[in-house]
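Lesson 9: reading folded outputs for more than one chain in a single document. The general rule is that every protein is listed as its sequence immediately followed by its structure tokens, and records are never interleaved. Here is the first one.
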Amino acid sequence: MASTYLTRTQSSTGSETKGTFSAWVKRAGLTTASNMYTSYQADNEFCDIQFNSSDQLQVVVKIGGTDYLDLRTTRLFRDTSAFYHILVAFDSTDGTQADRCKIYVNGTRETSFATNTNNVSSSLNMRINGSSQDPYIGSWHNQGNYFSGVMSHVHWVDGTAYTPTTFAESDSTSGIWKPKTAPSVTYGTNGFFLKMENSGAMGTDSSGNSNTFTVSGNLTQNVDTPSNVFTILNRLQRSRKNTNNGGDYLFKGNLTFDTSSANGMMAVVLGTMGVQSGKYYWEYKVITNTRLEVGISQANVMGFTDPYYDLQTFSTIAMNSSGNIKGRFIGGSSWDDYATGTSNTTNDIIGLALDMDNKALYIHKNGTYLSNGTAVGVPTSGSSRTGSLIEPFAGSRDDYIPDGEFIFPYVHDVSTTGVAKAEFNFGQGYFGTTAVASAGTAPSEGGIFEYDCPSGYQALCTKGINSF
């Protein structure tokens, strides 16, 4: 959602003493202020809910330039792999001053604050529902602090301070905190409910109030939801060899790997989900193939600055640094003998089908599966492993996946000066901000891909993993 926000012009006045914000959010960027909601009247008159640059959850009410409320949680929110349910309830009429703003995360109230400024007097006008206080989703006013990540089921309630169980509940089987898709809510005059279920009208209000928002920027709909969480590239599971170079290299919801602004940092990044069993499929689009390596890896690759030369790690390369798709399983510095040598270029889409049950990996280029030097890959071949780019363990060879290892998607820029860029689709349905051109056969547990997901395979998502 970076550089994108939603807003509407508010013309009616509702309750200025009571309101509730509820949303499910999945972070992508860290250590940068990331706003979820702002009720803005002026630079010195606003109510604001954000993850601040210290990764604290922060709620501010500023009136006449004075902070009447500034709550910053002690704990930090740095998990980029899962959704948080954030609920903030305002009620300046509450008889207990400390309860005039309550913050909940995943149903549990936050009570420990690194900053705890609370000067909210009884029945204070909190600047939350006035006719001149325009709401913004995903930015502070329209001047930055754009939310980096995914937002789902965004509610604002005018006139009532609700508790988390209004909007979410514990699953009766798993105990996992999950959203109520149709909560019983009285939204009030300026309340709204943004489901974001219509890709052509993402600002549509489903509360019944018709408080529809205008979208600014390139807002992308995503199938990554609290009910089915998809893999992204892991901002917390990455490393680099060239530590003197700065700059970020994960963008667009942590699905774009791009070292062009990071001085060729020799970056190593894993996906957020690893697997020990089952069959999984994902894709990436080649943008700049110089020095780009993509494939699978075990978790301890992060302990090495140059993992494709470290004998203690292994990874299967779907593309080597010369722009050739090789399919090498690494246990040293030399290429194995089943290299395909298939070249690739900008906008080629590479598909990876990982069969963990049979310890096999198959790779296609633009829908055509590649040969391991003996046979063309057949992802559904099972134990025969026809065309697999990983061989069974055979004596001194090192091209196998040890039992018990968690295996992750992997991307690596091997250069100190070159550029590597690829856009990943783990089933979200997009490469960067561009939707797949013509979706292939989808996996049964959710996901949208450019090419057919092989029969029996799933996306790397919570429902997909749980299906095995």
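And here is the second record, again sequence then tokens.
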Amino acid sequence: MTPARARHTIMSAFLEIEGCETVGFEKSMWRVVIDGHRILIGAHIDDFVIACANRPVLDAFQQCLLEAFEGTYEGPLEHYLGCEIARDHIAGTTTLSQKHYAKEILRSY
């Protein structure tokens, strides 16, 4: 078993114990409802994105993960898997961009 597959297997088992279930056929996306608040967890190898509309519920779940596994909280999401993420809380929008990636492709060709 590859290290990435082993991490996925261990994390999946932990998330199931915490009451999480996978979303549809996707095996790297989970959801759980805690105190009436939905938490979504997306994973790519050892990088995780956790989202919840209720900050205290999100923080408690995140703390549970950090107590079970070695890791760090990197703050609000700004980059993930080559995408730049910009949030406008006032307008209630989130914008994803791959401008940096596109510029690199254009420079290369």
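What the second record shows: The radius of gyration is 16 Å.
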